[in-house]
Amino acid sequence: MRLAIGLGLSLPLLAQVDFATTIHPILATRCAPCHSGLKPQAGFSVETRESILRSIKPFKPDESVLLRRIKAGQMPPVDGKLTDSQIADVEKWIAKGAPWTNTLPAEPPLWIAPIKPRTPPVPANQMSNPIDKFIADYFARHERPFPDVVDDAQFVRRATLDIWGMVPSPEETKKFIADNDRGRLIDSLLSDRKKYAGHWISFWNDLLRNDQGVNYAGTRKSITPWLKGALENNMPFNEMASALLNPVKPTDPDGFLIGVNWRGDINASQTPFMQAAQNSAQVFLGVNLKCASCHDSFINKYKLQQSYALAAMFADTSDLELVRCDAKTGRHTGPEFLFPEVAEKPASNSLADRRKAAALSFTSPEDGRFTRTLVNRYWQRLFGFGLVPNVDDMDAQPWDDDLLDWLAADFAQHNYDLQYLIRLIMTSRTYGLPAVSEKFPDYTFRGPKLRRLTAEQFSDSLSEMTGEWRVSQSGEKAAYAREWELKPTSLSRAMGRPIRDQVFTTREDAATTLQALELVNGDTLAIVLKRGALRLLGDLPDAPQNLFDSRRMNQGSKPLNIDITGAKQLWLLVDDAGCYDPSRTVAGWINLQVDGKPLAPATGILTTDKVKHEGSIITPVGSLVMYPIEGLTRLTGAVGVDDGARSSDINPNVRFFVFTEKPDLERLLRVSGDPPTVLPKPSRDPKVLIDQLYWEALSRRPNPREAAVAMKLLTKDGKVTQGGLEDLIWSLVMHPEFQYVQ
């Protein structure tokens, strides 16, 4: 039982009756169970000296009601009377004036997160970068020397992964080592806006619930073109936020406020306007309103009324009734920002004015939470651990509040420039410190955390090593693409690429059983290793070209009439081009004939645009069927999607292809354009391959033992084998040096 403490008297304690060891245990165990808390029995509390004086008179035990009741056995009423010795101690204590001493340790002062900006002075020391000045001061307070930085090869690998999201090429690593100018390296990496955006867009996709290659059923909308442009053009962060919160231009990203269509009945806390409030508060203010969208939060200070007031800034109506745990309360609220001291009042109750006021409130120069939240997220991304450890709880105390506040204020003073912030952090000596892997119960900063590669970094780095890039096949032609641009694979899901139907501010980077299974036995990695090995050896064949491509279809039918002269086989593919539910999508080939004769027996009836097509060949979406033919010249018929598959919870999206040889499913269309990086030169020299792959994967040469093992793995009878090359690549991407940003 916790017993609060009152003010002590200046009287000396009796040596034989010490309050802390003699009287306090009696009050805490025998009295406080009934006489403490908000509603003590009979209104009498023993928690403080002030309250207990109602029943005792210091120096006068005979006139003290409490002592008379204890002696009479009336108190305590349960578990028996106090012992004679205990009663004597209470009497002596009162006779000496009932002195009271502090029995609890002093509690630390309550941390209250500031709202408005604060610019603390930069510490005065020998460091040049302001971040280093704060960290040097931090290390001094913790009686720790400033560690030495990592070597150049390790630094260029870390920096390239953090800005471009892939390992550097051997040429890039060697060039930097020769140049030895870390500031110039950072500037060079940031200047390639396409590669920079191709990495950081994954971070922002997680935050903004945006994705590629997924089905946007219902009202959900992609914001990819706007987001990619914002990053490539280094749009100021306050302008990005304003466009997301108040999309008024035709090119603005109105998909952020729309939310996710969950299909069917939903809780009141998941309405589109409440999603807008939850997402904007979490992303831009580091505030979790999800609990406070059903009831007053149990995990933080935010109330149901505050959630609905913020939601009213984005709802169709300016007056919202509060719904507690799906029960209407009869209470209403209008639009209000979470922090009244920086709030902008709407000019009218129109939705346009409410959204405008929301954007102005979030991005107000007086709203320091806005900049602190962003700076903390970027620090967490680059160091693995935030200045405020939970990036979604900016009410919590930072481990260095001066550094956080200074960075936030400096970021605003530099026009909310995201690349400026990255450069400031990455050119600090602090960023270059060795990575640490220890987990500390009470966190103290020692250097960057050892970070596992993200799903996108892993895939793109493997493509950089092998030259085997995936391709986007959404248009008439295929184009080389980075991982973020494509539908996730089983491997990228296992490695942490989220299903972005909600905000993801951090990803779990711990190894899992599913990751192990995918990395050891998964088809996705096996295909890349095989194709990558063939490409490095110069043996990768050109992909077969299709004779027919229906383009994406979600309804109706299209005719086909193609020349198949000289073909010995027909390969018919029904490709999943983004179905929400492929298993329930019905699509097929209608009345296929070769030179006027049916190609195959009828397998079903397909209905397109209310027309029934008997004799249809219906196979599951994703199926590939081969028919042997020879001496035939023309294939006719049609392809179609059944009307019954057009329900919103199926949302078909298929694409039909015809080939005369087995297709390469990764290259259904002719690939055009350049890959994201320069392709490595093919070679059959084992020493060249080993040296090249080690530099690519680990930014270093193999040591003699590693080179010997690699040579044995790679060759048979002195010649490089495809299987050996696959095994070498696999062993390198399994290496901890590859899988972690060190």
Q: What would you note in describing this structure?
A:
The structure is a single chain. The protein has 742 residues and is α+β, with helices and mostly antiparallel strands. Among the domains are: 19-95, no CATH class; 266-362, no CATH class; 455-537, no CATH class; 548-663, Jelly Rolls, CATH 2.60.120; 686-741, no CATH class. Helices cover 37% and strands 12% of the residues. It is built from 26 helices and 19 strands. Strands 7, 9, 10, 11, 12 and 14 form a six-stranded antiparallel β-sheet that branches. The protein has a four-stranded antiparallel β-sheet with strand order 6-15-8-13, with no helix packed on it. Strand 17 (715-716) and strand 18 form a beta hairpin. The model is unreliable at 1-15 (pLDDT under 50).
Helical percentage: 25-40%
> What's the gyration radius in Å?
34 Å
> Major β-sheet, in short?
6 strands, antiparallel
Could you give the distance between the termini?
48 Å
In one word, what is the shape?
globular
Task: Give the count of helical stretches.
Answer: 26
CATH architecture of the domain at 548-663: Sandwich
Question: Which parts are unreliable, with pLDDT below 50 for 5 consecutive residues or more?
Answer: 1-15
Report the CATH C-level class of the domain at 548-663.
Answer: Mainly Beta
Strand content: 5-15%
Number of separate strands? 19
CATH topology of the domain at 548-663: Jelly Rolls
The helix/strand class is alpha+beta
Overall pLDDT: 90
